[in-house]
Q: What sequence folds into this?
């Protein structure tokens, strides 16, 4: 699938690769193709797609492709592009690289930022509150990479690619290549990639361990696509998990996932309201005997 993606963006008809909707179409097609493989080559029966999971996954896929994508463009990519222009920053050396080298560089830049953002989310409580809903999923499939709190989905989409002058097809090829790798890294597909592949790229074994029920075991294998970064920075761990989820594998609804980062504030407010109601009740009880007398 990676080879097909690269061939499409390198040699595909210009009417297709230059179409403004090309990336919007190819990205979900990759996920759908891997989901189809789950039906014929299932890894774990307990991860099998059902109606509830399908509706949830579809909601987040649409959310990521619309609102999250729009926010990333307006709040991150456009300002970076404007900053680049105002400072006169040029990176023409990027366009002089061979096409495959541009693809590899774009993947590394994207994944390097996502690795450290992901690691931060596991090691600092305010960020963990945004990321925890992604770890409350109780099964893995090819669409689960898009499931999570909207704040996390926005943060993990941030990058500095707008500061570089990539060939557009190389950039889109990089995004789709990462889509293939990350889809398989979440997929319920029985597959054993070759050793050389799993040395560089994240597989379902690596990522299922990251989603295991023991929180301490999740603090490893942060690479969404490049497990090589975990090997370099000392966060790689070998193993595989079948049971995934947090807090006794409690599955969160879409509403619970959305409100999760604000739950401490909500609970504090509810406790304050309960205490205030208790004080008002106590005050009314004290006044009632006096009125009776």
A:
């Amino acid at each position: 699938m990676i080879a097909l993606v690269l061939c499409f963006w390198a040699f595909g008809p210009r009417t297709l690769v230059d179409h403004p909707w090309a990336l919007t179409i190819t990205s979900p097609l990759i996920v759908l193709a891997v989901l189809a493989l789950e039906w014929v080559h299932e890894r774990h029966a307990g991860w099998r797609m059902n109606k509830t999971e399908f509706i949830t996954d579809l909601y987040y896929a649409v959310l990521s492709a619309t609102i999250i994508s729009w926010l990333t463009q307006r709040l991150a990519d456009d300002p970076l592009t404007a900053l680049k222009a105002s400072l006169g920053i040029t990176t023409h050396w990027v366009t002089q690289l061979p096409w495959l080298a541009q693809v590899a560089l774009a993947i590394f830049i994207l994944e390097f930022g996502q690795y450290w953002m992901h690691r931060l989310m596991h090691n600092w409580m305010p960020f963990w509150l945004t990321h925890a809903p992604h770890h409350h999923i109780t099964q893995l499939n090819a669409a689960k990479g898009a499931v999570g709190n909207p704040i996390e989905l926005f943060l993990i989409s941030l990058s500095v690619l707008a500061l570089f002058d990539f060939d557009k097809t190389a950039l889109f090829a990089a995004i789709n290549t990462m889509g293939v790798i990350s889809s398989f890294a979440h997929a319920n597909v029985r597959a054993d990639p070759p050793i050389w592949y799993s040395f560089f790229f994240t597989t379902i074994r690596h990522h299922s361990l990251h989603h295991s029920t023991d929180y301490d075991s999740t603090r490893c294998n942060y690479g969404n696509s490049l497990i090589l970064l975990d090997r370099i920075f000392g966060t790689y761990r070998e193993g595989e998990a079948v049971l995934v989820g947090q807090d006794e594998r409690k599955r969160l609804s879409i509403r619970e996932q959305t409100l999760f980062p604000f739950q401490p504030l909500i609970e504090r407010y509810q406790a304050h309201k309960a205490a205030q109601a208790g004080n008002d009740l106590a005050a009314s009880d004290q006044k009632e005997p006096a009125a009776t007398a």
About this structure: Residues 51-87 form the longest helix (37 residues). The chain has a mean pLDDT of 93. The radius of gyration is 23 Å. The CA atoms of residues 93 and 281 lie 73 Å apart.
